[in-house]
Amino acid sequence: MFDEQLIVIGTGIRTVGQMTMESVGWIKRADKVLYIVSDPIAEELIKSLNPDGAESLFHLYGENKPRIQTYHEMIELALGYVRGGKRVCMAAYGHPGVFAYPTHESVRRARAEGFKARMLPGVSAEDCMFADLNFDPAMAGCQSYEATDFLVNGRQIDNTSNVILWQIGVLGDTTFKARAYDIKGMPQLLQKLYRYYSPYHDVYVYEAPIFPGVEPVIRKVPLYMLPQAGVSAISTLYIPPSAPTRSDLATVQAIGLA
Ligand SMILES: C[S@@+](CC[C@H](N)C(=O)[O-])C[C@H]1O[C@@H](n2cnc3c(N)ncnc32)[C@H](O)[C@@H]1O
Asked: I need a labelling partner for 199 at 20 to 30 A (CA). Which of 31, 173, 192, 254 fits?
């Protein structure tokens, strides 16, 4: 096993079945396990694997508090323990490096301060989506954007490709809400998507199951119905291609594919 002072692991989306043996080993071995998980099974498992070291970071979130402020508090807490000589394991749900700022930043900062730090991969919501929605990103490619970033930063869509929009349920809100988010940017998001798709193009609101034996939520709706599709903070949007692949025939011939 490596000799890291900071190790970042993921619990998977459905901890039972998706947490790796390697992650279990690191949780047991750490002096402190700082966890950012909201499902009770993952929390109980972490606490049972390391009863003395487990510490939830969830209390750092606050209603209407900017999430970035909470993330910086998480990073500071983790780095504080590392500087104090503790072996720290940060545990986040899903893949700890997918749409997860405090985990990446903790590794960067720890390394910059001369500590050994490493992130281990986990099973992300996107990995679950490939399985549950039965599509392969190799077929037609796959664009993956954070929904607010897609909307406000001039990102472009190739509608011959698969498209995944993350954090659709917190669109336009940079604060934390314990219950429902007010999805302020939805009309603007639809307007932008209509540049690429017909309002009648079918899209999928997807939620991977967190608990064993539970089916995924898969809501297929025409794009114009998205605001009524019951999007939540854990929903991810999948948009299948709406146009066929256009091959570049000159290149196809030049590399001997035809
Ligand atoms: C801060 S990101 C965390 C992603 C996580 N690190 C991962 O590996 O999937 C939160 C977003 O992930 C997606 N997500 C989280 N849980 C999900 C689930 N159970 N099913 C589908 N998407 C989920 C949603 O897009 C949500 O807004």
From this structure: 173
